[in-house]
Write a structure and sequence with these properties.
Blueprint: H1 2-42, E1 48-56, E2 59-68, E3 71-84, E4 87-95, E5 101-108, H2 125-130, H3 156-176, E6 189-191, E7 198-200, H4 202-218
Antiparallel strand pairs: 1-2, 2-3, 3-4, 4-5, 6-7
Length: about 240
């Protein structure tokens, strides 16, 4: 019996390994294609977009400097945040040469459908708060925290994370081009002394409970048998409240 179970495990492991090898390249190619498409969406017409890889607060960030006929026409920054309601999500943020936000494209996320996922919708209030504005001249926080950014309804945590990601993109653009250090995004989290990590604040805890309630209210019911360029500083070529799961 032990030998039989061992054989089954080996076959299963081999199968998983085979599937991984078969799908690894197509997945990577799809991600690269998505990234190239995003560059085209957030930048004006360009001849070349030269990448510069940085690490800010332990997260990889890539700044693309786009040129046309030898002139800089804009910047695109592949940025990320770990503060989403469901963890990490990635954005591509396009900037005009003077630092104004031109466009934002969500590259990947796992936020709640119908709540945090709305950050990827065209014309959403988060992007509208940044559209045509220089983050260095803004109070980078959602309005609930005293800032200039309108939060998504029932998605305060996602909204704070979006602000964090855009601020990180702005800071990376400034650093990559030697224009300064950057801005500080008030994400509603309290930085732990001497570390780049954050600890939930009282506000975060409240918002976390609220999003969970919002998710529960919007989730399908299961039936069972019994019931059922001025610089901004960020920690770091688009109201309802949230609750933590």
């Amino acid at each position: 019996m032990v030998l039989v179970l061992g054989g089954i495990s080996l076959v299963a492991s081999a199968g998983v390994g085979f599937v991984y090898k078969v799908t690894k390249d197509p997945i990577a190619q799809a991600a690269e294609a998505n990234k190239k498409a995003a560059l085209g969406e957030v930048l004006p017409a360009f001849d070349e977009a030269v990448p510069d890889s940085l690490t800010l607060d332990g997260l990889p960030v890539i700044v693309y400097t786009a040129t046309a006929s030898g002139e800089i026409v804009g910047y695109a920054v592949e940025t990320a945040t770990m503060s989403g309601f469901s963890g990490r999500f990635d954005l591509m943020v396009g900037f005009e040469p003077d630092g104004r936000v031109r466009a934002v494209k969500v590259l990947q996320h796992a936020e709640t459908p119908g709540l945090g996922s709305k950050m990827a919708d065209a014309g959403n209030v988060l992007f509208a708060s940044f559209d045509g504005r220089n983050p260095g001249e803004m109070n980078l926080a959602v309005r609930k925290d005293g800032g200039d950014v309108d939060a998504l309804t029932a998605a305060t945590i996602t909204s704070r994370a979006y602000v964090d990601a855009v601020a990180r993109a702005f800071n990376a653009m400034m650093e990559s081009n030697g224009l300064g250090t950057g801005v500080d995004a008030a994400t509603g989290a309290t930085a732990q002394a001497g570390t780049g990590s954050t600890a939930p604040s009282v506000t975060d805890s409240t918002d976390t409970t609220a999003q969970a309630a919002s998710e529960a209210a919007t989730a399908p019911t299961k039936t069972t048998e019994s019931a059922r360029p001025q610089i901004v500083s960020c920690s770091i070529a688009n109201d309802g409240k949230e609750t933590k799961k």
